[in-house]
Write a structure and sequence with these properties.
Layout (H helix, E strand, L loop, with lengths): L2 E4 L3 H10 L2 H9 L9 H12 L10 H5 L4 H4 L11 H14 L1 H10 L10 E10 L32 E8 L4 E7 L5 H19 L5 E4 L6 H6 L6 E4 L5 H9 L6 E2 L6 E10 L2 E10 H29 L7 H12 L5 E14 L13 E13 L1 H10 L2 E6 L8 H9 L2 H10 L14 H32 L3 E2 L5 E2 L4 H7 L4 E4 L5 E5 L3 H10 L1 H6 L5
Parallel strand pairs: 2-5, 5-6
Antiparallel strand pairs: 1-15, 2-3, 3-4, 6-12, 7-8, 8-9, 9-12, 10-11, 13-14, 15-16
Length: 539
């Protein structure tokens, strides 16, 4: 009886793993136990395939994930889905942790540096990762745990969930470093520790002339003074600093020079000393950011106006005992407004019975004056103008003072910080494996985060390789709308591989790979003969 198994896009994933030698490198680091059928390298490759399966299969259903996949084709001959059981995977995660997760990940990623290109920057950032369900700490000495799973500042706005923090470093295209931190880790402190502990190792793996790029959380006096003096960095300057506020608000638009290489950007450069460090500050004006922030500002002004007018209507029904109290109450109310001021105030006076009773007062009733305030508002032109002047403006600082890098290259380096942000979006995608994290052992959680990082590496590398090849041969592939593109997302390409399957005979012998359509065939030819071979294409 014939049977088929789903290959889909996993053949590409397996081929990328083969190209950067994930299995061989892991086995070299951890070693091979001859008593075990599945090596640690094969188990890591299997888990990487699982992370990029884009199906909801948590780790405890791991054999079920591979039950419908051609395991011997993807991982190795003689292997079956049941070989990848909880014991196998748990043992592998434990050995990965003992071997050193950060060092292991850096050694694997270094195999892919050919595809990174000539980028000069390390892009570094952190993000919180939530644990679904109830987390029960491992019994024993809590202080001995490598990280603490706890509540902390949640960047996902989920303070109700326990969390840990992931630190990620990428180049312009590929991840280079990943680390798991305690849930209450401070960005400001971590960046300083990261630079001190791992900068030399990263330089050894990649190159020693790279420049670190951080967001504004790095930019503190303590960090600037604590990082190695020979470490070169770029950082956004917090707009809360007095010097930053002054520069942003005082530089005239005419002083900003239009960039020749960065479309829609205007720059002006100055030198500054902060934290005892002489720096280059670049004030940047972005036309797109200005337009976006202007729209946001108008919405905020409109929303505030509606809220104030509603509050003033209720306020007009409030009674005051004297005119002074009424006017003071209006002034107190106005202090809370950001973009509006009082335009006109009218005070009306009415008679009220001293007894407070209802009905028309009698001639014998004692009467008191009560005061009512009716106020109208207008937009605070001066304050709004000050706000408008700051829109679209931000400051990039660097300790690179020579002409090695132009102002435009510094700004572009910071703009590419979005690459690490894309990495976090990928790790948190509901289709990705990360949202099913369930492990209760801190060490295994940390090892699983490294596996997630390998999934990100393989995904980014596949996309980078395909785009490079398309540009090299001046070819295109169809996007979601059927339009030709030379920079497709690899997820879109994975989608066109759906339905490709492997046919077996009754004895389990592989007969053929079926349903390879035109676009998948073209993509595989661009990837190369090793990729075509996984899909049984004769080359």
């Amino acid at each position: 009886m014939y049977q088929s198994k789903n290959l889909d896009h996993l053949g590409i994933v397996a081929a990328v793993c083969n190209e950067i030698q994930i299995e061989e490198e892991i086995n070299k680091i951890i070693g091979i136990d001859p008593r075990q059928k599945v090596t640690c390298g094969q188990a890591v490759k299997a888990m990487t395939l699982n992370t990029l399966g884009f199906v909801d299969r948590p780790l405890y259903l791991f054999p079920e994930f591979f039950r419908t996949k051609p395991v011997e084709l993807l991982i190795g001959k003689g292997l079956q889905s049941d070989d990848f059981n909880d014991d196998c995977l748990g043992r592998t995660l434990d050995k990965l942790y003992d071997a050193g997760l950060e060092e292991t990940f850096m050694r694997v990623t270094a195999k892919a540096q050919h595809y990174e290109g000539d980028t000069r920057f390390y892009h570094s950032d952190t993000s919180s990762m939530s644990l679904q369900g109830e987390y029960i700490p491992v019994k024993g000495d809590i202080d001995a745990a490598p990280i603490t799973i706890t509540n902390g500042f949640s960047k996902d706005n989920r303070p109700d969930l326990k969390q840990f923090v992931v630190s990620l470093i990428t180049g312009r295209h590929l991840p280079m470093f990943i680390q798991t931190l305690s849930g209450n880790t401070s960005d400001k402190e971590h960046f300083r520790t990261l630079a001190k502990t791992y900068a030399a190792s990263l330089d050894k793996m990649w190159s020693d002339d790279r420049i670190w790029v951080w967001d504004s959380a790095f930019y503190t006096e303590k960090n600037l003074l604590s990082v190695p003096k020979d470490l070169r960095w770029i950082s956004r300057v917090p707009e809360t600093l007095n010097d930053a506020k002054e520069l942003i608000s005082t530089v005239k638009s005419d002083d900003l020079k239009k960039s020749r290489t960065l479309d829609g950007y205007h720059l002006v450069r100055t030198e500054m000393v902060y934290g005892g460090i002489r720096q280059r500050w670049i004030l940047v004006f972005s036309e797109k950011a200005h337009s976006r922030e202007m729209n946001t500002l108008e919405k905020r002004i409109k929303r505030e106006k509606e809220q104030i007018e509603k509050k003033l209507w209720h306020f007009s029904k409030q009674e005051f005992n004297c005119k002074t109290d009424a006017l003071q109450a209006v002034e107190t109310l106005q202090k809370k407004w950001q973009y509006h001021i009082i335009q006109d105030v009218k005070i009306t006076v009415k008679k009220r019975k001293n007894s407070g009773g209802r009905g028309r007062p009698k001639n014998t009733d004692l009467l008191n004056n009560v005061f009512f305030v009716h106020a109208t508002i207008k937009r605070d032109g001066d304050r709004v103008q000050q706000e408008l002047l700051r829109k679209g403006r931000f400051i990039i600082a660097t300790n690179v003072l020579d002409k090695e890098l132009s102002d435009e290259e510094i700004v572009q380096g910071y703009k590419d910080q979005q690459q690490v942000e894309r990495g976090f979006r990928f790790l948190k995608d509901p289709l990705f494996f990360a949202h099913s994290l369930f492990l209760k052992n801190e060490k295994r959680i940390m090892a699983m985060v490294m596996i997630m990082g390998l999934g990100l590496l393989v995904y980014a590398l596949a996309e980078r390789k395909l785009r490079m090849k398309l540009k090299e041969v001046h070819e295109t592939v169809p996007d979601q709308k059927g339009e030709p593109t030379d920079h497709p997302t690899i997820r879109r390409m994975f989608q066109v591989f759906e339905g490709i399957s492997v046919l077996y005979d009754k004895d389990g012998v592989l007969l053929e790979v079926m349903n390879i359509r035109e676009t998948p065939r073209k993509v595989l030819s661009l990837f190369g003969k090793e990729y075509e071979a996984v899909y049984g294409i004769d080359v």
